[in-house]
Structures are given as C-alpha cells and as structure tokens.
Write the structure tokens for this entry.
Amino acid sequence: MKALDGVRILDFTHVQSGPTCTQLLAWLGADCIKVERPGTGDITRGQLQDIPKVDSLYFTMLNHNKRSITIDARNPQGKAVLEALVKTCDVMVENFAPGALDRMGFTWEHIQELNPRMILASVKGFGPGPYEDCKVYENVAQCAGGSASTTGFDDGPPMVTGAQIGDTGTGLHLALGIVSALYQRVTTGRGQKVLCAMQDGVLNLCRVKLRDQQRLAHGPLTEYPQYPDGEFGDAVPRAGNSSGGGQPGWILKCKGWETDPNAYIYFIAQAPVWEAICDVIGKPEWKTDPGYAKPPARLPKLKQIFDTIEQWTMTKTKFEAMDILNKYDIPCGPILSMKEIAEEQSLRDTGTVVEVDHPTRGKYLTVGNPIKMSDSISEVKRSPLLGEHTDEILRDVLRFDDGRIAEIKASGALGGAPTRAAAE
Ligand code: COA
C-alpha cells in the first residue's frame, strides 16, 4: 500500500514549482493526472534539451509517476473535459501566472460548484500585496525572499544558491498544505484553497537570517566573519561560509584543492569536542590556553583558528579528514560534487538516487523520494510522454464512451485541428 492511495490529483502545473509538489504526492501514491497543452505540453519538455526531440531531463526529473492528458482549455469541449476531471479529482494543483486560471473559467466559485470537496492548491510568486500580479521564477523568489542578500561573501554581490529553494522549496510547502487540507476534509467534508507564495517559502527557509536581523539591534553577530574587525550595517550581511547556528564553521581546503574544485570540507568547531579538535590538529596547548579554551574567547579569533585547522585539513583528502574527525565526533562534511553524488552507492541503495528507463531517452539518473516511510511503498516510475494517457483517462477515469471520445477528439480539444464534422 502507498500512503496516498485513493487520492486523485488534477495536475495543472508547469515548469518546476508545481510539478515538484505533484511529483512528491505521486511518489506517495496519489494518482496524478497532468493536464498539458496539446502540441507543446509543459514548456520544460523542450527546455535544456540534451537529446534532440526527446523530453528534457528538466521535464523527466520533475514529472515521475504521473499520467499525461492533453487538453486545450480554451476549446469548449476541452473545458468540458476539465470540468469532468474537477468533479472526479480530490485536489487541483496549479502554478499559472496570477489570474490565468480565472481567465480559463476556473474561478474558485466555479470549482466549488462543480465539486465542493475540491482542494485548490496554487503556487504564486508573491502573496497579496504590491507584487501579487508579478510572474516569478526561482531566482526572483530567492532575491525577494531574503536568500540572495544573505548569501555570498561580504565583499561580493548578492548570490543565488544552486538549491532550488524558490521552486522545489515552495512545492514542498504546498504538498504539506495539500495533505493537511485532505486531512481536514475528513472532518469538514469541504475542500479549501491552499496558497503558497514563493517569497514566503524562501523566507521560511531563511528564517535564521530574520533572527539575525533582530539580533543586530543588540550588538554585532559574533559568529559572522565580519566580527571583530569588519563593520556591521543596519541589515544582516552576507556571512560567507560561516555556520547559520550557534557553532562556528567554515569551508576548509583539503589535499588536492589546487586542482580539484571540490577538495574541501565543512568543519564545525563544536564546543563540546574542542579538546579533540586541538589534539587532532596538533595544538594541544589550546585546550588550556585561556585565549582559546572557552567559546567566547575563540569568537574574535575564528579566522586564525580556521586557518590553523586548514593547515591540518590540507594534509588529508576530504574523505581521510572525514574518517579521522568522525572518530572524535567532530561534525564535518565533505564537499561532494554532483559526479560523486551520482556515483555514491549508498544513495543508490536507499533509492535516493535512482536509474530510470525512458522509452525515447533510455536510462537516466534521477532523485527518488527523499521521504522514507516504514509502511508505505514508494517507487519511481518514468515521466509520461505528452498525452500518453489521454485515451485511458477519458475511458477509465471519466468513463466516456467511444462516441463521446470521438466527438471530443473531432472538436480539436485534445490536439490536432477540428474535423469538418465537428466544426459544422
Ligand atoms: N490550454 C489552453 N491554454 C493553456 C493551457 C491549456 N492546456 N495551459 C496553459 N494555458 C495558457 C494559460 O491559460 C495562460 O494564458 P493567458 O495568460 O493568456 O490567460 C498561458 O497559457 C500561459 O500561462 P502562464 O502561467 O502565464 O505562463 P508563462 O510561461 O507566461 O509564465 C510563469 C510562467 C512560471 C512565470 C508563471 O506561470 C508564474 O508566474 N507562475 C506562478 C509562479 C511560479 O510557479 N513560478 C515558478 C515556476 S517554476
């Protein structure tokens, strides 16, 4: 059994934020029916294509475990099919630009008339306010949600991060909202709207920086690299690679750093293991020296301390350093390249990295479900081809007979030009 067996999703999402949400629900067992525009489908099918005329990895890696139906929402017959799907599904997920769903005729009022149990889940760039009508992509959300201003080095410009916290992060938030609304519906019998704004999702992931904004009023941020010599302005500065928590940390060079851009380790100088750190790096005198023995004494010297630790890490590969440090419970993490992650056997063993076979692409790697449950099977199935399940959904989900299906097809609602008979 799968956790969300019996839940049917009308997946009207595109690009990344919405698809990551519905992919997660589909991994957990929901029947996810992806509605795509005839001809092109989700725009990502054709974006960043590495193999001509084959669904891109961008698309395939965001749309596993789904079925695809092509529907022209502006065609009256297409709209009728969508309405029938609204009646039979539990959740409708969309991430169109603000107002687009209403313009298609699917206002919240209309959706409720069709199915009062329907949960309408939306991703938008911004919540209500001055920017609510704006279209938003990942990096815009990272900038507007506080991530970019707090990422990077003090002497450099704001930076976006490679983790897709605006898109995938918001998709994750939305999935939790959907599951909660499904749970509430068990009691109320009613659906509801669930909205996740990307700015809000990013800010939620950046909450430690709003914490630091308020700490600034009471003095310098002593774990930041600007302390004690640099200046703090009135907004949280970029903290380089310092830790976001109470334990000082930094990224240090390891053996081979001159040629390998990822020969680095993240090192946390955690207070309870300070004595072990001193022994490992060959500085036993720091254990009793009042200038180093206690955390407050170390804070003004963090740069010098990490420079000294780096003299030791540079004599080891990141994996050797990891092995030695872990013997003493010293928290650290190798900087892993995507190549190393793709080749890591333990991630394959847990299903976090999965090889999938695709009819036109062949084998490719994807990230599987990161949520592991003890009593719910999770499997990763390849993404659908455009419109692959159109007939199956009309027949088996909507229970349309052959005559009705032929009529809808002839109208052009599922793609292709309307036939003369339909036009007359
Ligand atoms: N049949 C007919 N029309 C369809 C259709 C279908 N099956 N599917 C989509 N359309 C139409 C929509 O109705 C809309 O038409 P309209 O604007 O003329 O009313 C149009 O296609 C395009 O939708 P839109 O969402 O505006 O796409 P876009 O490519 O211009 O913008 C985004 C893309 C991502 C910027 C925008 O959708 C957005 O801001 N979404 C919310 C935030 C978000 O999720 N961003 C992250 C994306 S990873």
The first strand starts at residue 8 and ends at 12. The first helix runs from residue 17 to 27.
